[in-house]
Amino acid sequence: GKVFEIAVIPGDGIGPEVVAEAVKVLNFVTNGGENEVNLTNYKLGAEHWLETGETLPEETLENLKKHDAILFGAVGAAPGDTRIPSGLIEREMLLKLRFSLDHYVNLRPSKLYPGIESPLANPGNIDFIVVREGTEGPYVGNGGSVRTGTPHEIATEVSVNTAFGVERVVRDAFARASRRERKHVTLVHKHNVLVHAGHLWRRTVEAVAKEFPEVTHDYLHVDAATIFLTTDPARFDVIVTDNLFGDILTDQAGAITGGIGLSASGNINMSRTYPSMFEPVHGSAPDIAGQQKADPTAAILSVALMLDHLGLSEESKAVEQAVEKEITSRQELTDRRTTSEIGDAIVALLA
Ligand code: NAD
Ligand code: IPM
Ligand code: MN
Question: Where is this site: Important for catalysis (predicted)?
Answer without folding.
Answer: 139, 190
